[in-house]
Every structure is written in structure tokens, then in C-alpha cells.
């Protein structure tokens, strides 16, 4: 039986009436996205139509999911909220803290020792407050959610930017910061600006070397890393219905790389088949009873230009396999043009490592198609020229593909099976030799490829492709190899060509698992004690942030003027820093160490205006905090893209940064800043970024009249006694302004709960 069946029955019981009410107030046919959003309004049935991209709306998500790295801070905040139990079904998944080094068994054993304190905390806090707990080794959050919790027409928030993976089963699943998760677990509404909509019509059908991954690689090339910001992407058409549920999940998962709020497919026969094959026939039966509401109206898909803000059409029959990168996931190359790009750009053609798996591509279908190529290598006397690793998405997938012989096939090819965890995808990879920082190339079936993300080496050129393309190139050991057209020389000196990959959407013998790794919470958690050692270097109870002082903020030092791309990896690196995700003060020692200083083109080297000397960003900011001096961070376009990690907002708040002023924000990061009581501001005129000088003292004017839609002023007091004054914008509504005044949203929750 499925998890939370009673909750799902309740959601479906009045779905039709909620959709009908929405259609009435909107006055036209509805997209799937609109149906789900209007069916999850906090106030019940829709009484008004919301303006896309403008209106802030309160929603009632059905569930919350958290991975271990972000769950620590989310649950530390929840502990302050004063509730005895979570208000909605919630889960914790231990997938981020396992470092890939040797192989699955040894790496998991090491992680259980090194992270025992954190795992014990997460287990006990889940036990106490009624959360489901997925143990280390159970699998990657998004794959586990797709297998166990995602359901068509539902709404979920998750403390990871790739939460949209559940859109593959028709769920509006949105990545958020831990403070948002805390709100929902505490029984409060979740606020989101009503998104705009991009419709992507898929025609034709995939064949040969092309896979679902190539759809999103193509889309990333079209929309870029910020083209989806403020939008939900809805896929439809005959091509969409031909894709497997896990293939759809892959596309939705990597939609995070275009900045989309989430992505979604409608419920269809493929969705039903996946539900039934993952022991959720009861949910499939319930969904079938309301299936007319679990897809967009026919009129919408027949005339999409009238109902979406933007429409893109892709013919799957004509789509080429793609390889994206290096250094950004939106640099898209069809395979026919990739070899020339490698040569023209001087990228290392020798491929050092191929890595498949991750939350994006670790389904049975992915593994079976990659394994068919590994078997060809064995049969055709080819020895893989590159290192090759496999990261299963869940214990259920790992057990099943092992039973069906695929892991043995990879082993014969020279592959190494890593733990069911995030591993190299998030920098949890003890890659031997990376410290030499040599120029090299790797190719992965992951989702992100920012510089230094996988192995900490800024000279690693990381490319993203489908598992089958990664496997083929790992066999060749050469990025210029095109498996569709080229041959390879085998051990006998013969020229051989790889055949098209073959695979199965679902296992013929069904899924199987001995121990999925799930721990149910205590029925009565009131007597469960959550212990946090005050001397711990990994866990730290939180103190409330101070409220706004009630005046304009003047005399701020410029901490850093960040140049170019500044992702959450630049603001709060992962990798070895993950061990401090539950200790705000310790992890703050990585604040902005990856950002490039505009004034010297260096990372982690800024001017300390108290001494005149240059030093690390965190140490400089700690000096300002000790002296009681506030500071400001200035940034470029799409500041805070990438991971949902709220540490990137909490660290500057903790160390005394008062405001972040940028050309534009990524959605999740802007919300995280607001939740923590920070000022998130944008240049009204992006050219004013150029006016900010290294020695400026900066004032923020107009805070006593802080109001929605009303600009604030920035005054740059230059060292030569001149000034520049200009307007800056914000997107705060009345409630978010109260968060700022109170010193953070959690302070208001605590007050309202009487804690």
C-alpha cells in the first residue's frame, strides 16, 4: 500500500469542485499547472483569478521532503516553532553526506561513522516530530520520492532545487529553502508569486541514441540558465505521452537548470504504469477516477499560444543527442557539432571519467540502456578507456538492477558502483589527483557542471549528457567520438561500431528490494529527546536574529562586489563543507569564498576597510561584525542560481551582512534572503552596478516608508567625498516586509505559536 493514502484520497475527493471553481473565476480553459495551483489554495475554492507574475498567493502543499544537508537547518528552525508534530506528511532523506571514494559498501560504512552525530540527530528529531526517515544508503531524495510519495495532481515543496523531479508523475513540486519548509511543517500557508507559464509541445517519438535527457538539454540551450525564472514549464503533446514516467522525471529534474519554478507533465498511461509497478495501484485507481483534472484542458493544448506566456515546440523524431557544457548546463551542443566544438575551443579531448546515475538519471530505464552498451563493449572486445562510475538512485533500483545482472555487466567493463547517494554530483567525490588542478575533461549524466562543483578542480571541464552517451564516450575515452557515426578499434585491432542502446522502461520481473531503508516515526514522540551537544562542531541550536532597528541603514561597508556568475556554490560551497550544514557559525567560514571580486578578479580576497589589507571574505566580515559595522554585498545577474541551500542566505545574515544588491536574483535565493530578514534589492538601472566603488560607504534610504512596489534609494558615499544616488527595486509584499522588520519569518512564527 502507498504512503499517506488517506491524505491523497482527501486531495482527490474535492478536486473536481476546486477545478470547476477555478475555471469559473478564470473564465477560460485551464492548463494543468493552473488546475493544481488553484486546487491547493490555502483559502479553499478559488474566488478570484490571480495575475501571473504579479500576485502573491498562499498555498497549502500536501507534503514536505528534505535531504539531510538541508534538513538539519530546516528542523533546527522547526524545533523553535513550538509545535509537537509536523502538520503535513514530511520526510528526511540521508543522501548528501556520503562521500564517494572507493565504492558503495566502504563509502557507506565510512559515512555512517563520520556522520553518526548528524544521522542520530535527524533520526531522533524525525522520530519526535512525526517525520518519515530514510536512512543513509536508502537512496537519493528525488528518486525515493518518485518511487514512494509523488502522486498526480499533488503539490509538494522540498528543500532541494531538484524537487521538481516529481513533476514526472504530474505533481507541482517546488524547491524551497528550509524556512519555507518550516512554515509548512508548522501548519502555515506557503507563499509563492503566481507563476507565468511556458508550454512545451513535444511531437514525434524518441528513437535510437536519443533519450529524455536530450529534451531538457535542448530546452536548456533555448531558455538558458535564467530563461525559466518565474515560470512553471508544462510539457504536453503526443511526444510527452510517449515518454516514460522516469524520463519525464529527468526532464523536470533538470528544469532547475533553466531557473524554472518547476516543470510538469500530465497524468497518462505511462504514469499509471509506473504507479502500478512501484506498488501504488491504489493511487493509480484513485487518479483514474479524476484523470480529466490531471491534465490540461483540450482547448489549451489545441491552441497553446492563447493560454501560455511562451510556447516552444520540439519534434522528438528529429531531436539529436546533446552534450552540454563545459562550466554551465545551458551551453548546448548537438552531437553532430560537439567534436568540432571540442577542437575549436581547445577543451581536453581525452576523457578521464564518465559518471552515470544521480537524481536526474538513475532509473531502471537509464541503467538498462547504459548496461546494453557496456555489454556491447564486452562482446566486441572493447576496453573502456576512461574511468567509469555508476550511482544508483535508490536501494530499490540498485537491488533490482543487481538482480537483473546489470551491475555485474558494468563491473566487467571496469565500472565502479558507488553508494545510493548524491556523491560526485554535489562535490562529494574524493577524486584522487584533483588537488593537482590539472586541465581535464569528465562527462556525467548529472544536472549541473559549474566550475569546481564535482571535484573542486577549477580546470575540470565537466559536460552533461544522457547515461548512454556518457557510457559510449567512456568506452571511447575521447570527447570527439560520435557513437552514431564513428567506429572504435577493439583489442583485436578490428574496427567496430556501437549499436543503438536498448533498455526497458520498467523491469519485466517487477521491482524488488530487501530493505528499502525506511524508518517510521514514533506514534507518540512526546518522550523522545533530541540531543545536541553544545560542544559539537557539526550541530548548533539556533538563536533568533535581531529585529530591524527602525531606521534607515547607513554607513555600510562594501564586503564584495561579485563579478559574473555567482551561484549558491560560490556563496556557500558544498563538498567538504557539507559536514557543517547543521552548524551555522562553522559553515559561515565558507561564505562567498567562491565569488570573484570585481576589483581584483580573485576569489576569497577582499579589502578589509578597517585595516586596508586584503584577506578572506568570511574573516573580513567577522571583523566588521565584531566592530558592530554592517555591510552589503553587490552582485551581477541571476545571483544565487543553482541549489536551494538556504545557508547561502543564512551565512551573510549570521555574520552581519544587511543587504544583497544585484542586477537580478534566482527565485529560491531571493525568497531565502527575505525569510531570514535580509534586504534583497535589485538595481532599477543595471548600469548603476558600475558606480559601486571598492571604498564606498553605502546608505539604504526609505526604510521607514518600506512598502510594496515602492523603490528604496542607495547612496554611495565615495572616498573622494562625491556621491552617487540611485533607486533600487524590491519584490517584497506586506507580509515579507513584516519578516524584515521582525528580523526573520521564524521570529513571527515563534511569536504566533507562543514559543
From TrEMBL:
Pfam families (alphabetical): Aconitase, Aconitase_C
Any GO BP annotation: tricarboxylic acid cycle
Every Aconitase/3-isopropylmalate dehydratase large subunit alpha/beta/alpha domain range: 35-477
Pathway it works in: Carbohydrate metabolism; tricarboxylic acid cycle; isocitrate from oxaloacetate: step 2/2
EC numbers, comma separated: 4.2.1.3
Cofactor(s) demanded: [4Fe-4S] cluster
Catalytic activity line of the entry: citrate = D-threo-isocitrate
InterPro entries for the chain: Acnase/IPM_dHydase_lsu_aba_1/3, Acoase/IPM_deHydtase_lsu_aba, Aconitase/3IPM_dehydase_swvl, Aconitase/IPM_isomerase, Aconitase_4Fe-4S_BS, Aconitase_4Fe-4S_dom, Aconitase_dom2, Aconitase_mito-like
Record-linked CDD domains: AcnA_Mitochondrial
A GO term for molecular function: 4 iron, 4 sulfur cluster binding
Keywords: Iron, Iron-sulfur, Lyase, Metal-binding, Transit peptide, Tricarboxylic acid cycle
Family membership noted in the UniProt record: Belongs to the aconitase/IPM isomerase family.
Protein name, per record: Aconitate hydratase A
Species of the source: Pedobacter aquae
Amino acid at each position: 500500500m502507498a504512503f499517506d493514502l488517506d491524505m491523497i484520497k482527501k486531495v482527490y475527493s474535492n478536486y473536481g469542485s476546486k477545478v470547476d471553481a477555478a475555471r469559473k473565476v478564470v473564465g477560460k480553459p485551464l492548463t494543468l499547472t493552473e488546475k493544481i495551483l488553484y486546487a491547493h489554495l490555502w483559502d479553499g475554492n478559488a474566488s478570484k483569478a490571480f495575475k501571473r507574475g504579479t500576485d502573491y498567493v498562499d498555498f497549502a502543499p500536501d507534503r514536505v521532503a528534505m535531504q539531510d544537508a538541508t534538513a538539519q537547518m530546516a528542523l533546527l528552525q522547526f524545533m523553535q516553532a513550538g509545535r509537537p508534530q509536523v502538520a503535513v506528511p514530511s520526510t528526511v532523506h540521508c543522501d548528501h553526506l556520503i562521500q564517494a571514494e572507493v565504492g558503495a559498501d566502504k563509502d557507506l560504512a565510512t559515512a555512517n561513522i563520520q556522520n553518526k552525530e548528524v544521522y542520530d540527530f535527524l533520526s531522533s528529531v524525525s522520530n519526535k516530530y512525526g517525520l518519515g526517515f530514510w536512512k543513509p544508503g536508502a537512496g537519493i531524495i528525488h528518486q525515493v520520492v518518485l518511487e514512494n510519495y509523488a502522486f498526480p495532481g499533488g503539490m509538494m515543496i522540498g528543500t532541494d532545487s531538484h524537487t521538481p523531479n516529481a513533476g514526472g508523475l504530474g505533481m507541482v513540486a517546488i524547491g524551497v529553502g528550509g524556512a519555507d519548509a518550516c512554515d509548512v511543517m508548522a501548519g502555515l500557508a506557503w507563499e509563492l508569486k503566481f507563476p507565468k507559464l511556458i508550454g512545451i509541445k513535444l511531437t514525434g517519438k524518441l528513437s535510437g541514441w536519443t533519450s529524455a535527457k536530450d529534451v531538457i538539454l535542448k530546452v536548456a540551450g533555448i531558455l538558458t540558465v535564467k530563461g525559466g525564472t518565474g515560470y512553471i514549464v508544462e510539457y504536453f503533446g503526443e511526444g510527452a505521452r510517449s515518454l516514460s514516467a522516469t524520463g519525464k522525471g529527468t526532464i523536470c529534474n533538470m528544469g532547475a537548470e533553466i531557473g524554472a519554478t518547476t516543470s510538469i507533465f500530465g497524468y497518462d498511461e505511462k504514469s499509471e504504469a509506473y504507479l502500478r509497478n512501484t506498488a501504488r495501484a491504489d493511487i493509480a485507481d484513485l487518479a483514474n477516477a479524476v484523470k480529466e483534472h490531471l491534465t490540461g484542458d483540450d482547448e489549451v493544448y489545441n491552441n497553446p499560444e492563447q493560454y501560455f506566456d511562451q510556447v516552444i515546440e520540439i519534434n522528438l523524431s528529429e531531436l539529436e543527442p546533446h552534450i552540454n557544457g563545459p562550466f554551465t548546463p545551458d551551453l548546448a551542443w548537438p552531437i553532430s557539432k560537439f567534436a568540432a566544438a571540442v577542437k575549436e575551443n581547445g577543451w581536453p579531448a581525452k576523457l578521464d571519467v564518465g559518471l552515470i546515475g544521480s537524481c536526474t538519471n538513475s532509473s531502471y530505464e537509464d541503467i538498462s540502456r547504459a548496461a546494453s552498451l557496456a555489454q556491447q563493449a564486452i562482446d566486441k572486445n572493447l576496453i573502456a578507456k576512461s574511468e567509469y562510475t555508476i550511482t544508483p538512485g535508490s536501494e530499490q533500483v540498485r537491488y533490482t538492477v543487481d538482480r537483473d545482472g546489470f551491475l555485474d555487466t558494468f563491473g566487467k567493463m571496469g565500472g565502479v558502483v558507488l553508494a545510493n547517494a548524491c556523491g560526485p554530483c554535489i562535490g562529494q567525490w574524493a577524486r584522487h589527483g584533483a588537488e593537482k588542478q590539472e586541465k581535464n575533461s569528465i562527462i556525467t549524466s548529472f544536472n549541473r557542471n559549474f566550475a569546481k562543483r564535482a571535484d573542486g578542480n577549477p580546470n575540470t571541464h565537466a559536460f552533461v549528457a544522457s547515461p548512454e552517451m556518457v557510457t559510449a564516450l567512456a568506452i571511447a575515452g575521447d570527447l570527439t567520438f560520435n557513437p552514431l557515426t564513428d567506429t572504435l578499434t577493439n583489442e583485436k585491432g578490428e574496427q567496430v561500431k556501437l549499436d543503438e542502446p536498448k533498455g526497458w522502461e520498467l523491469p519485466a520481473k517487477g521491482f524488488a528490494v530487501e530493505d528499502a531503508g525506511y524508518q517510521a516515526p514514533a506514534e507518540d514522540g512526546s518522550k523522545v529527546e533530541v540531543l545536541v551537544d553544545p560542544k559539537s562542531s557539526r550541530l548548533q541550536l539556533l538563536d533568533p536574529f535581531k529585529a530591524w532597528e527602525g531606521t534607515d541603514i547607513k554607513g555600510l561597508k562594501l564586503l564584495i562586489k561579485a563579478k559574473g556568475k555567482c551561484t549558491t556554490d560560490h556563496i556557500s560551497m558544498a563538498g567538504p563543507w557539507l559536514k557543517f550544514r547543521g552548524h551555522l557559525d562553522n559553515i559561515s567560514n565558507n561564505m562567498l569564498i567562491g565569488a570573484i571580486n570585481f576589483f581584483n578578479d580573485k576569489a576569497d580576497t577582499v579589502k578589509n576597510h578597517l585595516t586596508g589589507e586584503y584577506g578572506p571574505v568570511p574573516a573580513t566580515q567577522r571583523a566588521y561584525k565584531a566592530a558592530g559595522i554592517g555591510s552589503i554585498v553587490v552582485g551581477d545577474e541571476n545571483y544565487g542560481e543553482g541549489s536551494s541551500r538556504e545557508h547561502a542566505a543564512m551565512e551573510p545574515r549570521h555574520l552581519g551582512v544587511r543587504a544583497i544588491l544585484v542586477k537580478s536574483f534566482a527565485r529560491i535565493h531571493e525568497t531565502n534572503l527575505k525569510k531570514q530578514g535580509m534586504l534583497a534589492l535589485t538595481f532599477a538601472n543595471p548600469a548603476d552596478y558600475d558606480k559601486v566603488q571598492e571604498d564606498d560607504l553605502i546608505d539604504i534610504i526609505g526604510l521607514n516608508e518600506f512598502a510594496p512596489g515602492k523603490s528604496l534609494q542607495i547612496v554611495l558615499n565615495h572616498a573622494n567625498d562625491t556621491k552617487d544616488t540611485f533607486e533600487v527595486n524590491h519584490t517584497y509584499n506586506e507580509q515579507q516586509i513584516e519578516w524584515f522588520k521582525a528580523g526573520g519569518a521564524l521570529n513571527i512564527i515563534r511569536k504566533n505559536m507562543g514559543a
